[in-house]
Structure formats: structure tokens, C-alpha cells
Amino acid sequence: MLVPDRLTRAARTNDKETPLMIVCIPVVGDGQTGGGWGKAHRVALATVTDGAVTDWQEIEVGWDVAHDSGPEGTHHARIARFLIDQHVDVVVAGHMGEPMVRMLGKLKIRTVLGAEGDARAAVLAAAAQLA
């Protein structure tokens, strides 16, 4: 589940010292934004540089299956570990529960909700909103 070659937060610049933003968004097979965050089956990790998507990787996370398995808190911990390991700065989604929003806030991961339609366009719109 780990994605190789992700930059650490300390080294998150390219050769021109332009900051990179790593955005995570739930996706469905046709490139559209998946609705809910916590029950996503697949997510995309997008690197945004200078207002453009410079890297796009889709990963099957299976949170839809794992959502209600294990003791309380296990699911949030699973998602938190994934986001930390991938150095995610922003989560973009159609919707998510308030407990998840709070947990992401504690991790200093920003959220942009209400996303729909083309996933890449949603990522770019969120990145522009937060720039």
C-alpha cells in the first residue's frame, strides 16, 4: 500500500524550489470523484505543482470493506496511517463524517468537501482554493 518515491515534508520542493502539494481523493473507475471518504474503495494520490497535476497514482485501499471491521477507532487509525505514510497535505472528497474531519485536522491535513465530477479537476480546484 505504500507509494515509493514520495517526498518527505521537509524535502517537498522540486528543483526550482516550487512547493508541492500531495492531495488524496476517492475515485471510481471512470475517473470521477468517489462520493464518501471513509468507505472509499480506491483513492488517487495527486502531486500538484504550480497549479498542475504532476503525478497521479491510484491505489485500491478497500476502506469500503474494512469500514466496520475491528475495534472502535481501528478504521480511523488505518486511514491516518495511510495518509501519514503518503505525506498527504489535503484530502478532497464529496463528504465525510465530522469525526474524520476532526481527526484529519489534528494531523494538520486540510479537507475540502463537496467535490464531484472529474477527480483531477476536483483536485486542481481544491489546490487553487488552498494556494
Q: Summarize this, please?
A:
With 131 residues, this protein is of the alpha/beta class.
Number of helices: 4
Tell me, rounded to a whole number, the average pLDDT: 85
What share of residues is helical? 25-40%
Query: What percentage of the residues does DSSP assign to strands (E)?
Result: 15-25%
Spatial sequence of strands, sheet with the most strands: 3-2-1-4-5
Topology, please?
Blueprint (H helix, E strand, L loop, with lengths): L19 E7 L15 E8 L2 E9 L2 H4 L7 H12 L4 E4 L4 H9 L3 E4 L5 H12 L1
Parallel strand pairs: 1-4, 4-5
Antiparallel strand pairs: 1-2, 2-3
Describe the structure.
With 131 residues, this protein is α/β, with parallel strands linked by helices. The chain contains 4 helices and 5 strands; from the N terminus they run βββααβαβα. Helix content is 28%, strand content 24%. Helix 3 links the parallel strand 4 and strand 5.
List its salient traits.
131 residues, alpha/beta, five-stranded mixed sheet, 5 strands, 28% helix, globular, disordered N terminus
